Amino acid sequence: MPRLVVRYRLTAIPGPDGQRSEPGSGTAEPPERLVSFRQGEFRQPFRPSLYLAFNPNIDYHDSGDIEPSLLWDMAPGGVDKASHVPTWLRGRHEEMVCDQENRTTMSLDSTNIPIAGQVFSHRYLQHNPGFLQIATPNSPVGPWVDPDLHPSNHRLVMRTQQLVDLSGLGGRLTEFTPRMATDDEILAYHSESYLDRVRALDAAGGGEAGDGALLGPGSLEIARLAAGGVMAAVDAVMAGPVRRVFANVRPPGHHAMRDRGMGYCILGNVALAALHARRTHGLSRVLVLDWDVHHGNGTQDAFYGDPGVLFVSVHQDDHYPAGWGAAGDVGEGEGTGFTVNLPLPAGSGNATYRAAFDRVILPIIAEYAPELIIVSAGQDASVRDSNGRMYLLVDSYRWLTQAVIEAAETSAGGRLVIAQEGGYSESYSPYCTFAIIATLAGETDLIVDPIAARGHARNTTSTVVNAAAEEALASIENVQREYWSMLRG
Ligand SMILES: [Zn+2]
Predict the structure, then answer these.
(1) Distance 110 CA to ligand 1 centre (A)
(2) Within a 13 Å sphere around the CA of 466, how many CA atoms are in the beta-carbon half?
(3) How many angstroms separate the alpha carbon of residue 378 from the centre of ligand 1?
(4) Which of 82, 174, 324, 342 has the highest Cβ tally under 10 A?
(5) Phi, psi for residue 58 in degrees, rounded to 5
(6) Element (H, E) at 104
(7) What angle do CA 284, 324, 377 make, to 5 degrees?
């Protein structure tokens, strides 16, 4: 008979030894056993926070964690021999709840339990990169043209949050509180000298930590909270029952290099979260998919020689940052083939993105079979963005999100983290981001696309793969065929 291993969710209930249990603790089992359990058919959460996993090698009578009679109550159909998962979990229609206090069972209304969550903090709105001046100081007009807010200002994340709150979507999400990334976690990627420099800038009240990576007062603490927010999202999907979490964080992170900030990014939020997933949760195959319109040079750099993280970036060709993201940049050493770049020509829209996903990205994800998917989600490939020239619409982001949900369900037990990167249209980006979060929660029609509603979306760039895009896709396929057998068929 299998041993019953009890694992506690969140922090609410005392463990069998009277200690309070944290996520990921409360069991002596190695993490991979829990991972392999969650990769089974465990789909439905059950309250109040008791998780069960079966070790097929040990008699459950030895565990002492839970009364045998309760085991029988909770596993009326026995245990599936192939997956070591109780039959009642596989069936999903006999969900039961174990009440830790009363040791009783009760039926579960699974319809009210969120499968999606969100990380957000109002502190994120306080990172202030200052103003954008239109004229350079040396121009005839000097600095006197009325300054605009910096493109990476607080309003994008704030407006997304307002849509979430005002639409009622927030009620369908489990809230997770971000924490600050520690020095040790940051130094897993960034250099000590860089962290020292950012510290010094922060102490001075702000400054530039690298090309366009601006700090205002308190920005280091907020950047720690952004990196720690994506890590908290990883912890949440690893602990379950929430399987998909959107991290509505700022400042963004995917341009940040090991030894310098870049492109509005101070810390490599997603790179650090992928490293955290590996170090803390023992994962060996993490997929980072970057659909920001700019190439995710920092994340690529973090894992260029590393086969343990597959980095896939789809971005506008010949754009920021210069010299990065060519189709032929495929990784190096042991990491060769584990960097996949899809530079698409400016003007690419929904049809081209779909073709890129159907023909290249989704087959590669299927072959790699990641244990966790983290998306660097910049909505600056939208039709209205000031910093990109692509033609994606709200509905495109819905489709992209659904595609990665299905990919995560196939190989990663549904574990999916989507982290906010760029996206600069104040009137449109928040709708795209909202569509992503709504799709994670299984909602489709809460808010109408403000462009499509007025018929402004009728543009052939959205519906046709033009000759330039086809040429780009063909050359990307040509490069990737060498590394991925699913592209050879
Ligand atoms: Zn971007």
Answers:
(1) 38
(2) 12
(3) 5
(4) 342
(5) -125, 140
(6) strand 104-107
(7) 60
Question: Which stretches of 266-349 are assigned E, i.e. beta strand?
Answer: 286-290, 309-316, 339-344
pTM for the whole thing? 0.79
Q: Is the pLDDT of residue 69 over 90?
A: no
- Asked if 252 contacts 269 with a C-beta cutoff of 8 angstroms, the reply is yes
Catalytic one among 127, 150, 190, 255?
Answer: 255
How far is it, in rounded angstroms, from Cα 113 to Cα 356?
34
Angle at 306 between CA 302 and CA 312, to 5 degrees: 70
Q: 255: CA distance to ligand 1 center in Å?
A: 9
Q: What is the DSSP string of 351-405?
A: HHHHHHIIIIIHHHHHHH--SEEEEEE--TTBTT-SS---BB-HHHHHHHHHHHH
Q: How far apart are CA 96 and CA 104, in angstroms?
A: 10
User: What mean pLDDT do residues 146-173 have?
Assistant: 91
Q: Ligand 1 centre and the CA of 435: distance in Å? A: 18
- 456 flagged as catalytic: no
Domains detected in the chain: 1-113 (no CATH), 116-487 (3.40.800.20)
- The model's confidence at residue 482, banded by pLDDT at 50, 70 and 90, is very high
Residues 453-478: pLDDT tens digits? 666 666 666 788 999 999 999 999 99
Residues with CB under 5 A from ligand 1 (ion): 292, 294, 378, 380, 422
Digit-coded pLDDT (tens) for 336-366: 999 999 999 999 999 999 999 999 999 999 9
CB neighbour class for 155 (10 Å; exposed up to 12, middle 13-18, buried from 19)? middle
Under 8 Å between Cβ of 118 and 170: yes
